[in-house]
Amino acid sequence: MSSNKNKPQNTPARRRGDRRDGRMVKAPGLQTVMAYLMPKRTDCEVYLHDTIDCTELLKYIEEKNASHPEYTTTVFHCIITALARMVRERPKMNRFIQGYRLYERNEISLSFVVKRRFSDQGEESLMVLVPEDTDSLDSISRKIVGDVKEIRKSEHATGGIDSLLDAFAAIPRPILAVVIRIIRILDFWGINPKFLTDGDPNYTTILCSNLGSIKCPAVYHHLNNYGTNSIMVTIGKYYNAEVLQPDGSKELRTLIDIGATLDERIADGFYFARSLKLLHHIFANPEMLDKAVGEASGFSYE
Question: 212-235 burial, b for 16+ CB within 10 Å, e for fewer?
Fold first, then answer.
């Protein structure tokens, strides 16, 4: 398991009701009742499928890679950075419900699976990225490239959550069932020990699946009731298609499909839609990725 988790910066003092990984937020009546009526995250899934024009983004990547060929920036790196910027500017996207309560995370975290080898027998490893406010595309891209290289040096688990899962898998079935039940109870109350949650994608803001890397389209992916992850994003392969322009003409553009499964209890549809608009804006203006994640986009949501 690879993780570049950093100590959260400027984290307020912990209050009564807060968790180690988030601050309790006073929820409106509707959200409070929904948490009791639909306590399972999988009961509250909203699936969004969207097509984003990445023509300008690909031009931007080509120019960037020409200037520093030693580090190859990819569409996936850009999407990860764009998602981090979106969550930073749209804080409700960084919320979760656990134990019938609404929380806002202390940090932004994005997780994804790294394939050690592109084969049927190739094992997978989990990676967690925690961008800082000062990070931009260049620094995030370098973190991803560096961590992926370390993961692919080995054919087997490299520690962290991967080794922990291997250890759990070796426990006899009846005992493992009891252990998992205890872990779920601790998860409900937010008192799971750090060694169980650090590096676990079920405890990250967004869990991403880059299906485009294996030439697959974006698909629906369920959320999990375990943990605190409220957003699952799948990224498909990009393709060329004719797109109708404002003047009525058609132009060949490069598009990419993105699927997102969200817990509808963390925000309303209006908030989700505006967050998606910001992603479209970043793709149309990729130079924004050169700015720090914590810098406001200046995008007008009207």
Answer: beeeeebeebebeebbbbbbbbbb
Pairing between β-strand 22-25 and β-strand 231-244 as defined by DSSP bridges: unpaired
Helix, strand, coil shares of the chain, percent, nearest 5, are: 40, 25, 35
Compute the chain's Rg from CA coordinates: 20
Give the contacts of 76 (CB within 8 A, at least 6 positions apart). 144, 210, 212, 213, 235
> Which amino acid, one-letter code, is at 257?
D
Domain ranges of the chain: 19-247+265-290
Predicted TM-score (pTM) of the model is 0.87
User: How far, in Å, CA of 94 to CA of 77, rounded?
Assistant: 20
Cα distance between residue 262 and residue 169, in whole Å: 29
Whether 192 and 180 have beta carbons less than 8 Å apart is answered as no
Q: What is the C-alpha to C-alpha distance for residues 114 and 160, in angstroms, rounded to an integer?
A: 14
CA 165 to chain centre: 21
pLDDT digits (tens, 9 = 90+) for 133-183: 999 999 999 888 876 666 555 554 445 667 788 888 889 999 999 999 999
Helix (H) / strand (E) element for 180: namely helix 173-189
CA distance 238 to 234: 13
Architecture of the CATH domain 19-247+265-290:
2-Layer Sandwich (3.30)
Tens digits of residue pLDDT in 78-128 = 999 999 999 999 999 999 999 999 999 999 999 988 755 544 444 567 789
Inter-CA distances, 200 with 55, 113, 164, 265, Å = 34, 11, 10, 22
Burial class of residue 198, CB neighbours in 10 A (0-12, 13-18, 19+): middle
